[in-house]
Amino acid sequence: MKKLNPSYIGQRNDIVKLIPNNVSKILDIGCSIGTLGRQLKSKNNAYIAGIEKSRAMGKEASKYLDKVFIGDIEDGMLNNIDDHEFDCVILADVLEHLKNPWKIVSHCYRILKNDGLIIASIPNVKHYSTIYNLVFKGYWPYRDRGIHDKTHLRFFTKKNVRKLFEQENFKKNRIVANYRIIEKPSKINKYSRILSIFPLRSFFVFQYIAVYQKSV
User: How many CA atoms are closer than 13 Å to the CA of 96, on its beta-carbon side?
Assistant: First the structure.
């Protein structure tokens, strides 16, 4: 397997801790090589299904998950999943890569059981680095990872995140903020919370993790 972007294969302790212990059937959309699924297997002993666009990564994930569907989520793959099938659907750094994330969220509502959870991690384009590069450098900072990953098609602020899920009958459970001063992992990021005081807070949020519950 060729060298993979570390942003897509690492552990996600921040997501794992948000999933209740009684969740027993999970769909991980964009499951990569199955790292998150393995973590959830260890914690919840749950049935974990995954969807992965990359055949190489999906093949690796299938060694650890109960079932892996390989293909593009926007090619109608969710149409083959029954209503009320899963307790939890995870979209970890996925929605910003889609042409129509609103349609995918709508499908997720359908396949979730009543009171099921949808959990999505989404970059915050309002981060000060966006404004700095646009205002003072006059360009959009295309990068290989993070908020300005050049494969992103859609961009979100916290308000956009709320509107994305409120289009369906989801009710907010919580929205968690991950703070960073610079995008790549660094010791300097431990000071980000010092800077995250109102009214500066939203400018140092690197990523939001939205947890919404299906309401009927």
Answer: 24
Give the ranges where 101-195 is alpha helix by DSSP (H): 101-111, 128-132, 158-166, 192-195
pTM of the model: 0.91
How far separated are the first and last CA of the chain, in Å rounded? Answer: 44
CA 41 to CA 77: how far, in whole Å? 24
Selection from 56, 3, 18, 2 nearest residue 34 by Cα: 56
**Crossing angle, helix 101-111 and helix 158-166, to 10 degrees?**
50
Burial of 178 per CB tally in 10 Å (0-12, 13-18, 19+): middle
How many Å apart are CA 23 and CA 9, to the nearest integer? Answer: 23
Question: pLDDT tens, 56-77?
Answer: 999 999 999 999 999 999 999 9
Question: How many helices and strands in the chain, by DSSP H and E?
Answer: 7, 7
Dist. CA 164–CA 160, nearest whole Å: 6
